Amino acid sequence: MFSFRSSTILMRIVQHLFFFLALLFAPVQATYLNVTVNNTDPSIQFSSGWNSCPDISPPDGLSYGGTRNCTSQYGTNATFTFTGVVVYYIAPHFTADGDVLTVLQLDSEPLVVVNLTQAQGQSLDWAIRWAASGLKNGTHTLVIYGPSNTMTPSSTWGEVNAFM
To answer: What CATH number should be reported for the domain whose range is 37-163?
Structure first.
C-alpha cells in the first residue's frame, strides 16, 4: 500500500523524469564565433620554400594584417588546421598580365583553383577569395599548394594571407 511518504517520493521521481525528458527534447542552440587567423599564426604550418611577402601596393593589393607568405617554389605547401563549420580564405587581389592562381584542398577533397587576379572594378585590397561552409563541426585541414608539376596549374603561386 502507498503511504503519503511513498507517493511524495513517486511524485518527485516523476518530476525529475519529466525535467530530464524536457531537456532531452529541448532545442539546443549553438553559438559560433568567427576567428581571423593571419599568416603568422602557429596553426599554419609551412613547408620549406615559403617567404614572408610584405605588401607592395601598387601594383598589388594590400594584405590582411600587412604581410603574407608566398612561394613560387615547386612542391611546397602550407597546412592550416582548424576546428569549426566554415572556413574563409583571405588574400589580396593581384594585377597581372595573366592569371595569378593558388590551389587549395580541404580535408583531402578535390583540389580547388582560386584565381587571385583583380577583376575589372574590384578593389586591390584583401578580400574573401574562397569559402567552404556546412562542414561538420570538428577538426579540418586546409592545404595551400605552391606550384607543382603534377598537382597544380603551371601559373600557380602559393599565397597565404589569412583565414577566418
So the answer is: 2.60.120.260
